Amino acid sequence: MDMINLKIDGFDVSVPKNTTILEAAKQLNIDIPTLCFMKGINEPGSCRVCVVEVEGWRGLHPACVTKVSEGIVVKTNTSTVREARKNILELIMANHNRECLSCPRNLKCELQTLCNDNGIDAIPYEGKVDKGCLDTSGPIVRDPNKCVLCGRCVSVCSKMQDVSAIDFAFRGAHMTVTTAYEEGLASQECINCGQCIKICPVGALQERDDTAKVWKALENPDLHVVVQTAPAVRVALGEEFGFAPGTNVEGKMVTALRRLGFDKVFDTNFSADLTIIEEGTELINRIQNGGKLPLITSCSPGWIKYCEHNYHDFIENLSSCKSPQQMFGAIAKSYYPVKADVDPKSVFVVSVMPCTAKKYEADREEMSVDGLRDIDAVITTRELAKMIRQAGIKFAELEDSKQDSILGTYSGAGTIFGNTGGVMEAALRTVADKLTGKSLECIEYTAVRGLDGIKEATVNIADMEIKVAVANGTGNASKLLDKIRAGEANYHFIEVMACEGGCINGGGQPIIKDKSTTDAVKAARVKGLYDIDVSCEKRKSHENPEIQKLYAEYLGEAGGHKAHKLLHTHYTAR
Amino acid sequence: MKKAMSMEHLDAIEEIKKANLFGRGGAAYPTGIKWEQAYAIQKGPKYMVCNADEGEPGTFKDKHILSEDPFELIEGMTIGAYIMGAKEGYIYIRGEYAAIQKIVKSAIENAKKAGYLGKNILGREGFDFELKVVSGAGAYVCGENTALVESIEGKTGRPRQKPPYIKNCGLYQMPTILNNVETYSCIPWIIKDGGEKFSSMGTEFSGGTKLMCLSGNVNNRGVYEIPFGITLRELIYNLGGGIKDGRKLKFVHLGGSSGSCFPESMIDTKICYYDLKKAGFSLGSGAVLVVDDTHCVVDYLKTVMEFFEEESCGKCTPCREGNHRLVEILDKMTEGTATMDDFNKMKSLAQTMKTTSFCGLGQSAPMPLITLVKYFEEEFLEHINGKCRTGVCSMSGKAGK
Ligand code: SF4
Ligand code: SF4
Ligand code: SF4
Ligand code: SF4
Ligand code: FES
Questions:
Q1: Quick check: A151 and A34 in contact, CB under 8 A?
Q2: Between the N and C ends of chain B, which has fewer C-beta atoms within 10 Å?
């Protein structure tokens, strides 16, 4: 490899060709501040916070996008550089709604840290430019007056998610990031994935806060409030309270939820198992009876909306199964009230989700049975953490406790739903047993694991070659579907998760402040879920005893009439 | 054109190098060298692009060529196309020059009818060149090469990160030769009469003639073609007929809004890229704006900075926010409410903008400020003390008129 030798702040370093000054400095443990830069996703070189001096070059240069060259002498910490950085940060702060104390991003804000680290102690300018008003049209709330115009959200939305709901508009100091015709995001093609929230360095993007709704329900004596928590929540919630990413805090979370006042603490993992039974049955039916293939999973509401907007010709391929969140709600308001002897109308279902699109999904008109909404309120992992803090609960010191019965028991298969490839693997475990009529020992389908964009595998079950694919993020789903459209690929079963990595990286998960650790955090969360899977006594959905009981006592046949009424849905071309 | 077609490509480029022709758009890059580099790139198709987006207040020389002699430009671009083997070219003209767009379009049509554009030009098999006029939407930043190219591609006019440079990776990511109207218009002359002859009209360092736009408080405003080497004084007093109403010259704003402002004592500098550079200025597009002593430097500067505030594309922080804040501080100065802290902040901010802005617009926008502060600091300080010596600024009753 061609190596380039250079000097940074007096130290020699040798790096491969095409390395940036920023990366080269990192090798010397020299930290150059950045704001707009997101490696591989957003490299506009536009905020100019990272500028450095290069001897003999005119002006200062952005370290994030300037490549090294042989023999250059870089200085990252001179009075010129410090003055420039300070001036630039002051300029950003001057046009920013500086209300840290009431900002959802307080203490997790990259701008706040930058200002603190770079000695910003006063803002020497006066006026502010109005950049538009708060957009509260949907689950994603945007505050243009806190936006620092880094463009990260724009890049994530277009490049990663292939949605392009937002972009830059206007020029000069009036420049803003907004939607087409500055309309509410909810009226756009936005899929509510919340990936923009997670990548935003400041508090310009956040989820709609539904905690007040939940507090109110908890305090209403006429309501029987039950809660479900999605699989990916338990391996990330701890990060909000100082635990290492990936730590399974399920036990403490259950205790905290009881302390908050929920009447019953249940688990979405349970209804994930239920989804597998229904979806697996649907797959076998479609394969055996010449139904529409490939069957495409439907548990990611961001993906569903994406498909409804962009791939009308694949709507029939979508599984008619509701997502685990909605299935849980339907059961919690039908079967559960009978068993627990409560009035179904008094049951209030709260979901804790790693996902902002789940708020949208719960609000979809068709998500109700016999006049009862499946889900009454959805909060994200971050919102749950907020409630726990509000309640003065010392999370780290809580004892562990277990979910309530009867919607709280789950298998390992239900757990791995939170990872990309998890639904696929869970489904294959069940489908293989059903098709062979045996209980197979080999259940780890590692080919569909991992954080690759598109994963493909062919599995041989009962002398049948079943071709499967997993698309990680809607951008990759789009690539996959285009191939199918063009006749270049075909599959029996496809899993799509709107968020890259699956729910562990959902738009409602804790903010990773130091973005350079994102990959490591994601990997730790993934591992957290697979570890739970291995530790489960039952690792196949159809072996979950409470699921078996549910079918025996209530639903009858998988895919049958009652199951259809409660657990299946339909889609709309948008 | 015919002569160019009889020459070896590299010989034609050699003539341009001998001509000592610097780009007339503002950046003043040696054209021959630029063409030589572009010629050497082995990738295609190559595009010829003309920056006819003349948008700087005080600059109106390209307008002159475009409306009076568009064929000169067309010929220059076609010679370039011949040398580079380009098949397509674009003339990017600002939307405000609607009438001129029409003139250029019909000139292109006529050239085509006469066989000077289109397929098999002048009967040469395989020498095809199509030229199109593209209308800009009226953004000053589109004069910046990469922003101009983005705009032709149909995107918002905002600059791209460099490198890669336009010559390697320009329009549609292909090698692109981008020059200004005046630069292209020199080419036919150079090919016809030779580089040395062209060069001999200028100085040792700057070849040929230059169109200068004389405006402001001067008697004979207009476009002048001058040989390099005459002084600014000669231009202003001999050709321009001196200052209006016999007033005193206060300063000259050279090279367009983003150029330097300097006092009368320096106008004996020769109009020559080298001499000007030595004096710390650049010729820019060749605009000479004459300002007499009825004007206040702070007030004048504020108007200039308002232009940049309006024209910043918004991509990078220093220019987007910086110009806005400079106007804010200058506003305070003209009202007599600015403090020493404001003045110091303004100086420091201007320096940061110059060194950290993404593109030439933001880097050069503070130039008038930096130079006016350098030569007229006293007047700024007077404003901080609530006095405007010319009586132009409103000083909440404290004005010194
Ligand atoms: S975005 Fe950051 S700097 Fe801005 S108000 Fe919120 S916490 Fe403070
Ligand atoms: S929520 Fe997703 S789709 Fe909507 S703007 Fe953000 S990134 Fe784009
Ligand atoms: S909303 Fe956030 S991510 Fe998007 S441009 Fe503004 S600051 Fe950057
Ligand atoms: S300096 Fe920055 S904001 Fe100004 S025009 Fe260039 S890129 Fe745009
Ligand atoms: S981080 Fe380098 S320019 Fe923004």
A1: no
A2: C
User: A45: nearest CA in chain B?
Assistant: B161
| Phi, psi (degrees; rounded to nearest 5) at B273 | -55, -40
B308 CA to chain A: closest CA distance, Å?
A: 9
What is the distance in A from the centroid of ligand 3 to the CA of A276?
38
Residue pair A323/A341 in contact by the 8 Å Cβ criterion: no
Element (H, E) at A535: helix A518-535
Spatial CB neighbours of A358, under 8 Å, sequence gap ≥ 6: A230, A301, A323, A325, A351, A378, A508
**pLDDT tens for each residue of A237-269:** 999 999 999 999 999 999 999 999 999 999 999
What global pTM score does this model have?
0.94
Alpha-carbon distance A175 to nearest alpha carbon in chain B (angstroms): 6
Mention every residue, 6+ apart, whose C-beta is less than 8 A from residue B341: A124
Segment (H or E) for B146: helix B145-152
CA-A203 nearest atom, ligand 1: 1
Place of tokens 């806005």: B324
Where would I find the H helices in A311-380? 324-332, 335-340, 357-363
In this predicted structure, what is the pLDDT of residue B400? 42
- Return d(Cα A157, Cα B359) in angstroms, integer: 26
Q: A114: which residues sit within 8 A by CB, 6+ positions away?
A: A33, A35, A49, A89
The DSSP output letter for A16 is E
Rounded distance from Cα A196 to ligand 1 centre (Å)? 16
Where b means 16+ CB within 10 Å and e means fewer, A187-220 reads: ebbbbbbbbbbbbbbbbbbbbbebbebbbebbee
CA gap B395, A450 in Å, rounded: 69
Query: What is the Cα–Cα distance from B183 to B170, expressed in whole angstroms?
Result: 19
B283, pLDDT greater than 70:
yes
H or E element that contains A269: helix A268-288
Q: Is the ipTM of this complex over 0.85?
A: yes
